[in-house]
Write a structure and sequence with these properties.
The chain has a single domain (about 1-215), classed as Lambda Exonuclease, Chain A, CATH 3.90.320. It is about 45% helix and about 25% strand. It is built from six helices and eight strands, in the order E-E-E-H-H-H-H-E-E-E-H-E-E-H. It has helices at about 25-30, 40-45, 50-75, 85-105, 150-165, 195-215, and strands at about 1-5, 15, 20-25, 110-120, 125-135, 135-145, 175-180, 185-190. The strands form two sheets. Strands 4-5-6-7-8 form a five-stranded mixed beta sheet, with helices on both faces. A three-stranded antiparallel beta sheet has the order 1-2-3, with no helix packed on it. A hairpin with a 7-residue loop joins strand 7 (about 175-180) and strand 8. Helix 3 (about 50-75) crosses helix 4 (about 85-105) and helix 5 (about 150-165) packs across helix 6 (about 195-215).
Length: about 220
């Protein structure tokens, strides 16, 4: 079970197990991983006179809107853009156009779109961007509007694969699809073939997250 307080960010989704207790989301769990590149990146923005917090919030809003536009397209419904600026809408539309370019070579039949799920076995939640059939096989597609595909995204996809399997959806692969926010960025994809070591990394992160929570 999951509740959401705002369209603009998944961070506001609250995942609850069947017993009513809240459980952490995949992104929250992976937040414990060290990201050494963030410090020099933030410093670089600071030297350019850019507030990194506002920059991140803006890009997150664009990513959320792009996700919503694609989800609504797959569901055959319009998107409410009233909460966003025109610049954010334009950049989100660029990302959607990159998705369309990818979809031309990957015609798909959506089964689940923007579907929150909760693992009762491992007690964590996550929202599946798209579970679909392509060429007769089941795939999990995770959309990203970031500037690159980072290792933690592979771990995230492994967690989603395991989460979907707990609901009876045994996907052949997870596809991480990065769609650019500018016309020249296009798209990039990475494949996660099995849960293996990436799933093990997530399980360790989940255990550490829970231990840290217990010791507060």
């Amino acid at each position: 079970m999951a509740t959401q307080t705002s369209q603009r960010t998944r961070a506001h989704i609250i995942y609850r197990a069947q017993d009513g207790n809240s459980v952490p989301g995949v992104t929250t769990v992976l937040g414990i991983l060290n990201k050494p590149a963030l410090v020099p990146w933030a410093n670089k923005l600071g030297l350019q006179g850019i507030d990194s917090a506002k920059y991140v919030d803006d890009k997150a809003a664009i990513g959320t809107l792009a996700h919503q536009m694609i989800a609504d397209y797959l569901k055959g419904q319009p998107t409410d853009t009233s909460e966003y600026s025109q610049v954010q809408i334009d950049q989100a539309e660029n990302a959607v156009l990159s998705y369309f370019e990818w979809e031309k070579a990957h015609p798909l039949q959506p089964i689940l779109v923007e579907q929150p799920m909760v693992s009762e076995l491992y007690r964590f939640g996550g929202t599946i961007d798209c579970l679909c059939r392509m060429n007769g096989d089941l795939y999990l597609v995770d959309f990203k509007t970031s500037s690159g595909i980072w290792p933690e995204m592979l771990t995230q996809a492994a967690a989603y694969l395991n989460l979907a399997s707990e609901y009876g959806y045994e996907a052949k692969q997870a596809i991480i699809l990065r769609i650019g926010r500018t016309p020249d960025e296009g798209f990039e994809e990475r494949i996660v073939n099995h849960v293996g070591k990436r799933w093990a990394i997530f399980q360790h992160c989940l255990a550490i997250y829970n231990l840290l929570k217990e010791t507060k």
